[in-house]
Amino acid sequence: MKFSTRTDIEAPIEHVFAEVSDFSTFERSAMRRGAKVQRVDSQDVRGPGMAWQTEFTFRGKTREVRIDLEDYEEPVMLGFAGKSAGLTGFCEIELIALSPKKTRMRVSLDLKPHTLSARLLIQSIKLAKGTVDKKFEARVADYARDIAARQDRMA
Q1: Which CATH superfamily is domain 2-154 in?
Q2: If DSSP states are collapsed to H, E and C, what string results for 77-100?
Q3: Are 94 and 106 in contact (CB under 8 A)?
Q4: Which residues partner with 111 through β-bridges?
Q5: What is the residue-averaged pLDDT of the chain?
Q6: Contact, 151 vs 101, CB < 8 A?
Q7: Helix H segments across the chain?
Q8: How far apart are the first and last CA of the chain?
Q9: Least CB-packed of 4, 25, 78, 154 within 10 Å?
Q10: Is the peptide bond between 75 and the residue preceding it cis, with omega within 30 degrees of 0?
């Protein structure tokens, strides 16, 4: 199952990339929402090989997901692979400079079930695909507005 959206951000590509690759901020944000996040690699620099073990509640059940940073091409792309007990996923964030002060961000998420329970979960999401797509697009758009706002405060 695939989700994909794109949005334009009133900020330079370097600023947008710095925001989307600020992993410690994402870690803190997930923990504030009740997730457990633990960095499991020993790298000192950002790049492929970074990994996190996460635990969170989704649809009333505790889920564990390992997230690996697989693609890191500054300032244009990040690619994350996620793996849980019955589901794998890949998230790609691609940035394109439209002008010196405007960036297009494309976010795609591809989920693949490997067990019966994961297939049932994906099937239930497919039944609400329109609603889920709208929520996905809205969250990405909200995040893009936050990035632009932080750029405005810095300017």
Answers
A1: START domain (3.30.530.20)
A2: EEEEEEECCCEEEEEEEEEEEEEC
A3: yes
A4: 89
A5: 94
A6: no
A7: 13-20, 23-32, 116-127, 129-154
A8: 40
A9: 154
A10: yes
User: What gap in Å lies between CA 113 and CA 23, rounded to an integer?
Assistant: 26
CB 9 within 8 A of CB 16: yes
Domain ranges of the chain: 2-154
Within its chain, how far is the Cα of 60 from the centroid? 22
Residue 81 neighbours by CB distance under 10 Å: 15
Q: Quick one: pLDDT band at residue 60, thresholds 50, 70, 90? A: confident
* Predicted structure pTM score: 0.91
Burial 4-40 (b: 16+ CB within 10 A, else e): ebebebbbbbebbbbbbbebeeebeeeeeeebebeee
Specify the amino acid at residue 64.
E
Region 64-83: what's the mean pLDDT? 97
Q: Which tokens belong to 133?
A: 């797509």
pLDDT for the residue 155: 64
Q: Name the one residue in this structure whose structure tokens are 């649809």.
A: 59
